[in-house]
């Protein structure tokens, strides 16, 4: 068991099977030592978390949705690393998208739900560059979608 998997287990997190794409794309692409992971939406064991921040969702609910995105991203990381999360050298960048009302400005706080889990799982290697933007709608009505770039060992 990798350190990341041990940390996730201590947090009570079991990684799901990686979510299959819903359109014409692949879940991740490796180029050299970088893996580009397609956007993962706020899908959890109870289904898709839908909503719009500032309308029918508050910051805490948005952070929980972003945390689900993080769990789905890590499941894709594991798949990209042949089942061995110890091959993740660094979480390089996250791109966060939040379905939000026009006057909702706490987008970075929402995406912290993902960022915080990356650091909890990977330690300093989980610290990353990031963007966080709002949009009026996300695929399938998801509240949050996040993509990632990671560096992996040979």
From TrEMBL:
Pfam families for this protein: YjgF_endoribonc
Span of domain Endoribonuclease L-PSP/chorismate mutase-like: 5-143
What protein am I looking at?
RidA family protein
Organism lineage reads as: Bacteria, Pseudomonadati, Pseudomonadota, Alphaproteobacteria, Maricaulales
């Amino acid at each position: 068991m990798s350190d990341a998997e041990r940390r996730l287990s201590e947090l009570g997190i079991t990684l799901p099977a990686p979510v299959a794409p819903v359109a014409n794309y692949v879940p991740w692409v490796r180029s050299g030592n970088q893996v580009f992971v397609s956007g993962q939406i706020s899908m959890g064991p109870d289904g898709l978390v839908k909503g719009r921040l500032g309308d029918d969702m508050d910051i805490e609910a948005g952070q929980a949705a972003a945390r689900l995105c993080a769990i789905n991203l890590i499941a894709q990381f594991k798949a990209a690393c042949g089942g061995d999360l110890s091959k993740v050298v660094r979480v390089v960048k996250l791109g966060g998208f939040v379905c939000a009302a026009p006057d909702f400005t706490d987008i970075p706080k929402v995406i912290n739900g993902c960022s915080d889990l990356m650091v909890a799982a990977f330690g300093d290697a989980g610290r990353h560059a990031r963007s966080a933007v709002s949009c009026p709608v996300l695929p399938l009505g998801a509240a949050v979608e996040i993509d990632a770039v990671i560096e992996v060992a040979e």
